[in-house]
From TrEMBL:
Pfam families: TetR_N. PROSITE patterns: HTH_TETR_2. Residues 2-62 form the HTH tetR-type domain. Keywords: DNA-binding, Transcription, Transcription regulation. This is Helix-turn-helix domain-containing protein. Residues 25-44 bind DNA. It comes from Gordonia westfalica.
Length: 199
């Protein structure tokens, strides 16, 4: 079973990278993987589920790369940019597939296995961003840190969406991300209870 899943994963990954999500069919994936269509659907019930299965691994790898870069970056805004930049870089390599992946994460069926897996990765990333903010601003409540962590992922999501929608170069998307992260982190670090910005 594991070998069949790996063959399906590799076939779907290669075909989507070569031709883009919209041009690939499940029949082509099953043929390249050397499995029957019914077997493929036991692992991923739809083409969208195949996309989620493949790009969850891209997301997981990008998150791990960002964590590695951030570990040696003490300044909080720079550490968060280091965590998020690999997500933008990965999306820039395959903008059509990245846009489709984001769409499926946001709007796909709630009971889909691979969508739930992808959302869990995002929630873990947001929690790690909240932890970074909490260390930089110890007075921040758990809820305030959670909301700020979600905002940081939201601007990353928009940076990725803008690249696929309007051909913004990766370097510009990352520079915009850096500016927005710095603004959010500066606001959070100088935030005082009651909603006032400290001096």
């Amino acid at each position: 079973m594991r070998l069949k899943r790996e063959r399906i994963f590799r076939a779907a990954s290669d075909l989507m990278r070569e031709r883009g999500f919209s041009a690939v069919t499940t029949q082509e994936v099953s043929a390249r993987a050397g499995v029957a269509a019914g077997t493929l659907f036991r692992y991923a019930a739809t083409k969208s589920e195949l996309l989620l299965m493949v790009y969850n691994e891209v997301l997981r790898s990008s998150i791990a790369e960002g964590a590695e870069h951030a570990a040696s970056t003490p300044e909080p805004a720079a550490a968060i940019v280091a965590r998020l930049s690999p997500l933008v870089a990965a999306a820039a390599r395959e903008p059509e597939n990245s846009a489709a992946y984001q769409r499926e994460l946001l709007f796909g069926p709630h009971n889909a296995k691979f969508r739930a897996e992808g959302m869990a990765l995002i929630f873990e990333l947001e929690a790690s961003l909240a932890d970074t903010l909490r260390r930089a601003a110890p007075a921040l409540s758990d809820e305030e840190a959670r909301v700020a962590g979600s905002a940081l992922f939201a601007i990353t999501h928009l940076a990725i969406a803008r690249m696929s929608a309007s051909d913004i170069p990766e370097i510009d998307a990352i520079n915009d991300l850096r500016l927005q992260v710095t603004q959010i982190v500066t606001g959070v670090v100088h935030y005082t209870p009651g909603g006032r910005i400290g001096r």
